[in-house]
Write a structure and sequence with these properties.
Length: about 325
């Protein structure tokens, strides 16, 4: 006997900052949805598409050959209107009018804050899939896009190291992470950086000054990774300050910027996105309403969306210790 409240139609969006592997997650949601007998709809440009009712039905062939592509076929946006109650009401009304009974949101903590409100205000099932290069989501070891971004940074920094050592320069490289230093920490370890400045650790500037003064006028190169959100100031202020103290040293700045967001996703991100897409559809079918599917110790976990918004993921202290030992 068919249950009256059995889910038949679901929707998927990508929201907030784009990340490599979002397409692999969309593909996974669409294919596992269809395999479970569901109709799957994709709304364009995140929450803006929900508000403007801009959507299309996604068939299996619509997601062919996208597992290897960066960006998101559904586009993404930061929606001001969705931050208002009226905006979320419009979004819900559009979902209801199309008889859509569950929503999967691929995005970061901002997107999950919006998802939590939509779910609570309208008693609507929403499942989150962590998709952000920053890896700064509580409750999951990895977010989709982080591994690819990390590898992009490592490749770029290796190239900078070549030129830096040819000229015996000190290179300061800024990597993404407005609030969190996950990219900076791991890329710093992977590139053998002499110092890493992260928003989570204070007093790093003093340490950096000691490092630079110890090297004196020795002719050797150094590489310093600086997270975008470093609290001691932006990268130019930091370099200006150091230059005033050590005017003879040749210091350069390189800001990696948006190359960190693009590119073909790594094998790890593709597999993670595929696993999480299937897990998200399963969660909806198992009556979960307001959770994120994540990865902990290589297992799929369910974490209340509310928790992912309220709590901060802390940086791995073991990795910080490694940095000090290996410099
Ligand atoms: P990233 O971490 O990559 O930046 P994100 O999902 O955190 O991704 P945000 O720009 O913070 O990106 O959020 C995406 C969208 O989610 C916002 O444009 C807005 O529409 C919605 N959103 C964010 N915070 C809230 C909130 N407190 N209430 C309602 N909606 C929100």
């Amino acid at each position: 006997m068919e249950l009256m409240d059995e889910i038949k139609r679901i929707a998927v969006i990508t929201s907030g900052g784009d990340a490599p592997g979002m397409n692999a997650a969309i593909r996974s949601v669409v294919r596992s949805g269809i395999n479970n007998g569901l109709e799957v709809f994709g709304f364009m440009r995140g929450y803006d598409g929900l508000i403007n009712n801009d959507f299309k039905k996604l068939e299996s062939h619509d997601v062919s050959h996208i597992i290897q592509t960066g960006g998101t076929i559904l586009k993404t946006a930061r929606s001001k209107e969705f931050r208002t109650k009226e905006g979320r009401k419009k979004a819900y009304a559009n979902l209801k009018a199309s008889k859509i009974e569950g929503l999967i949101v691929i995005g970061g903590d901002g997107s999950f804050a919006g998802a939590t409100l939509l779910s609570k205000e309208h008693n609507f099932p929403v499942i989150g899939i962590p998709g952000t290069i920053d890896n700064d989501l509580y409750g999951t070891d990895y977010t989709i896009g982080y591994d690819t971004a990390l590898n992009t940074v490592v490749q770029a920094v290796d190239k900078i190291r070549d030129t830096s050592s040819s000229h015996n320069r000190i290179f300061f490289v800024e990597v993404m992470g407005r609030e969190a230093g996950f990219i900076a920490l791991r890329s710093g370890i992977a590139t053998g950086a002499e110092a890493i400045l992260l928003p989570e650790v204070s007093g790093q500037l003093e340490k950096l000054k000691n490092l630079v003064s110890q090297r004196g006028n020795q002719k050797k190169s150094s590489l310093i990774i600086v997270a975008e959100g470093e609290r001691e100031g932006n990268i130019f202020d930091i370099v200006k300050g150091l230059h005033a103290d050590f005017p003879k040293l040749d210091m350069r700045v390189s800001i990696l910027g948006h190359i960190q967001r693009g590119g073909s996703p790594s094998a790890y991100d593709r597999v993670t996105a595929s696993r999480l897409g299937v897990a998200a559809v399963d969660a909806l079918l198992n009556d979960q309403r307001s959770i994120m599917v994540g990865i902990r110790n290589n297992d799929i976990v369910h974490v209340p969306l509310k928790k992912t918004v309220k709590l901060n993921k802390s940086i791995n202290r073991d990795l910080l210790e490694i940095v000090d030992v290996l410099v």
